[in-house]
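Reading is simple: each integer encodes one residue's backbone shape. An example follows:

___
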Amino acid sequence: MGMRYALALALWIGWMLPFLHKLLTRGSTPAVVVKVPAARWGMILEGVACGLMWGIPIPDVPPWRVVLALLLGALGIITTKLAVQHLDQHWRFDAALSVDHALIRTGPYAFVRHPIYAAMFAMLLCAGLLLAYWPVLLAGVVIFVIGTEIRVHAEENLLRSRFGPDFDAYAAHVSAYIPYIR
């Protein structure tokens, strides 16, 4: 069990590295014009969901769960790295827009509108497959989706207010955070 905890922790650290790198290497960020602090409630729920995966560990898991967890963890890390690169100076902790904000549609944003949430969902599943009983994993997924929907709604209202029909056209063709699910 300790090895699975270490593996889950290593994958989560790998997921966080692009954010840490961005914080340490970016210069000044454009001034925020509009911010939605209420979106933090979604972030709190996402954190609770992810934390659940670590709480009551399952004593043993079959090898297929470990393999699937590794694949999801790698996908989450790669997606996050690419998303942060494509967002560049527009990446922020909070749901916010800056004066020069652009609507990003390249890289992973060509497949989902919120690839960082998709990657975080992959990481939640990764930890759950490595550590959690099925009912705990299911509860975590439900809580995570509720939190993510709060964040997505807040961010998309901001983007729609700035980009109007351009954002609507983008949203009509690209899934929110789970590919092929609108």
Observations:
- Helices lie at 2-25, 40-52, 63-87, 115-131, 134-163, 165-173.
- The mean pLDDT is 91.
- The beta strands are 32-35, 96-98.
